[in-house]
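Prompt: Have a read of the protein record below and flag anything odd:
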Amino acid sequence: MITLKNIEKVYRTSSIETLALTNINLDIRAGEFISIMGPSGCGKSTLMNLMGLLDAPSQGSVEIGGQAVTHYRDKELAQLRNQKIGFIFQSFHLINDLSVLDNVEIPLLYRKGDATGASRRELARQALERVGLSNRIKHFPNQLSGGQKQRVAIARAIVGRPDIILADEPTGNLDSGMGNEIMAILQQLNTDGSTIVMVTHDESMAKKTHRLVRLFDGSMVGDSSIGQGALSMETGIGRVFPSEEQSTL
């Protein structure tokens, strides 16, 4: 579903060059739920931006659904993002002046060929129902709790029925109880067929995914199945995580 080959990302200014990612080779299969961990500044957000076609590698290639996209034009990348990828952010990124329903409908406004406003609103209602917020469609973001805002953000990410969901610290601004509820929603979406890549600092949340990729100083230092023990970034020694039953809504 997502393939990164020999990825290098360099940020340059007139006086300095910063190597953000180097020698990244990663293949994420359809239906996987991947977590990415590492210390601040290790390249997690840069890697997520490359997967989400928000940035381009300095070297190497990116494939989405078998399509090599490295040389796509901006308009082609935007269209592919809109059709294939849903984004969930730590800070929600909701528009306070719009209702919950209007916020969720936004991605559909940029889709060519999508029909009437009524059909878009029905899809938005269905997405909100999936995350348990059908009774909040007329509310505004400032009338919601943090967990409810994240549910709206998830509904917005899935309203276009993308194949891939990219979640950047989706539980980072939530308490543990609400974080577990959000993870249960993501697990259910994955069970329903979505491929999910999640950046997190929370080891307990990473344990709920299928596979853990660790980054350090822009390099991959671990890639292993959670059930078989994830690699310790510091020592490279396998650690066995206890198995956990998937939560449901």
Q: What stands out?
A: The longest strand covers residues 17-28. Residues 228-249 have pLDDT under 50 and may be disordered. The two ends are 26 Å apart (CA to CA). The chain has seven helices and twelve strands.
